[in-house]
Structure of L-lysine 2,3-aminomutase:
Amino acid sequence: MARKTLKLYGLQHLDILRHYRDISDRALHEFSVVGKVLPFRVNNYVLDELIDWSRPDEDPFYRLTMLDRRMLATSDFDAVERAMRNGAGATLADVAAAIRRRLNPHPANQMTTNVPLLNGSGVSGLQHKYAETCLVFPSSGQTCAAYCSFCFRWPQFVGDRSLRMATDESQRFVSYLREHKDVTDVLLTGGDPLIMRASVLRRYVEPLLGPETAHVTTIRIGTKMLGFWPYRFTTDDDADDLIRLLEEVVQSGRHLAIMMHISHPRELETPAARDAIRRLLAIGAVLRSQSPVVRGVNDDTQTWRELWTSEVRQGIFPYYMFVLRDTGPRAFFEVPLSRALDIYRGAVSQVSGLARSARGPIMSTDMGKISVDGVADFGGTRTFVLSYVQARDAEWVKRPFFARYDDTATWVDGLQPLTASDRMFLSRPEPRLARAHH
Ligand code: SF4
């Protein structure tokens, strides 16, 4: 098979868009203004094989990866534009930094609440929120083959290292995991850990396969490579090394779960994606898919119905439909909870039982993963029925609770508890510096 080379394009390559569509100088300028605040990266696969250039403005992948002036408030857009005109670098950087701080760069208090301690100091690049699962952020995997403009990890991509979570070189996360026998699942995440060379990824995976971490029975890898660069699994120069490493996980008797971020069924249709799926299934990896509902990308029933149906046909388990997190340009992309629920119900009621493994819509919050289960009428009051799928307090899981129906609410902070006893399920926990070492 012919080898493809990944070509990355950032803000400095905006002119490349002229090869694909009619675009005015003004539109390119607006793009670059927004790009001073939010990250932008696209690649040759997304440009050549995903985006339908006959109608780019309606295309889900154009919407997913490109920038739009409506992502910034008008006053913020004007402030960046003014700073660019003045040509004062420091001022522009300050303006951009101030806007970023207002865009809630760390939703769910990730920088402070979930970092565990080992021998009294925080283990960088590790998050331990739920007892059985640890998240590892490999330092070389904190970027992606293209960027989703809505991404809740966007602060990692804008060059501010203080906003970035990543392991240090000493790999203390391995020592932490050796001591925590309650951890059964390790999720390597990013960014996209598969952006790393196979030889670098091996440094993270191999230590987990030994007898001291026999309690780690599942290794999950969160990735969007299938959608953004499927050649990672097939023709990249170290694709065979990567597949061999993944196969070693399976051979060690562990469950290897590739947690694929798949936004739209078209991602599964290219020949490269199909080859990649077949290759992963052949080594015994289990493929699961998850994605948020994003306005203009996949906010309709038909898209989810096709997505889940196509996934099942190709051997992927539908896993989560998420609600967009409360960060970044959410106002541009968000979908009301009531609408997300309608989309979920509409799609799930039209697919076979095998595709109904998808849970949703789910808000991943400080307190845990909240599922919007339905709408009910209590004595004339329309009410959201909610429950926790995962919670910091395991007692909360699968206990229904209620909030007043509001068709404009897009996140948990827009919900009013129905009664006093529902209040605790919706209030944020006290900030905790770290999970105790035990
Ligand atoms: S692939 Fe995932 S981590 Fe990367 S930009 Fe998209 S949503 Fe964010």
User: Anything to note?
Assistant: The two ends are 51 Å apart (CA to CA).
